Amino acid sequence: MATASVSGRRKTAFAQAAAAKQRRQKIFVIAGAVLLVLVLAYEIPHTLKTLNASPKHSTAAAPQSGGPSTAAAQARAAATLRSLRRKSSADPFSGATIAAGVQSFGAVGSPPGLRDPFATSGTATPTSPPAQTPPPVHILPKQIVIGTPGAGRVASHGWILILASIPTAQGRASATATATKARGRGLSSVSILNSSNRRPLRGGYWVVYTGPYPTLNAVNSASSDVHASGFADAYIRQLIVYKAK
Q1: CA dist list (Å): 130 to 107, 111, 112, 115
Q2: Cβ neighbours of 154 (radius 10 Å)
Q3: Residue 234, φ and ψ in degrees, nearest 5
Q4: Which pLDDT value is given to residue 202?
Q5: Residue 101 gets which letter from DSSP?
Q6: Of 97, 119, 98, 99, which Cα lies nearest the Cα of 107?
Q7: pLDDT digit string (tens) for 62-120?
Q8: Rounded to whole angstroms, how far apart are CA atoms 185 and 146?
């Protein structure tokens, strides 16, 4: 009877242990299923995102495949540069052999007033002489009037040859030197006039002149001697002086 009781308790304990084991297995299964669901919930979107992004990565990585080709091209360029440096330098504008029928630079007409920079020395260049800028000419009135007309005054007419019009800023000494040179070359009746003191003349000049001559024929005859004496720029003006009777 005691043995049967012990045996029954053992069976009960074994059954309880087996039941507990089954419960633990069920818990492990449930926990594993929950964990699997969680892993799938994370991995599926991540995998889809990776698949969608993979073409971009492959495109971006594509240029790297050309690395060796680019390096080879750079090596060839460096070799070409070294070869060029070893060659003697040459002036591209120096005289070179030109095929028949082709004009050289020097044979091409350049614009008037300019010199062809590519023409060899000694080669005539079809250029026009540069335009000469004439020096400023201080022209006095064709008719020089001194004094004013009025009652009791009479006009005296004559002709003079103006040798030089010298700005007063240069001083009277310049005009005196010109007059002295004219007398030394045989010219007579040489005088100096300050145009600033003779209205209505244009002021600001020392006027060196010869005369007056009574007629136009007389001044024309004298002008030949004046020009031959070295005053080639001398010019004729009519002189009218109003004097009291």
Answers
A1: 20, 11, 8, 10
A2: 11
A3: -65, 145
A4: 81
A5: T
A6: 119
A7: 445 555 677 888 888 888 767 666 655 444 444 444 444 444 444 444 455 555 555 45
A8: 28
By C-alpha distance, which of 190, 192, 185, 191 is closest to 227? 185
* Residue 242 one-letter amino acid: Y
Contacts of 188 (CB under 8 A, 6+ apart): 210
Higher pLDDT, 46 or 95: 46
How many residues are there in the chain?
245
Structure tokens at 29: 């299964």
What are the tokens at 209?
């002149």
The model's pTM = 0.42
Neighbours of 233 (CB within 10 A): 13
Close Cβ partners of 133 (under 8 Å, ≥ 6 residues apart): none
What contacts 101, CB < 8 A, 6 or more positions away? none
Q: Give pLDDT tens digits for 146-193.
A: 888 888 899 988 999 999 999 999 999 999 999 999 999 999 899 998
* Distance between CA atoms of residues 158 and 241, nearest Å: 9
Report the C-alpha gap between 219 and 203 in whole angstroms.
Answer: 25
CA 114 to chain centre: 19
Please say if the pLDDT value at position 3 is more than 90. Answer: no
Alpha helix ranges (H) inside 62-171? 67-86
CA atoms within 13 A on the CB side of 114: 9
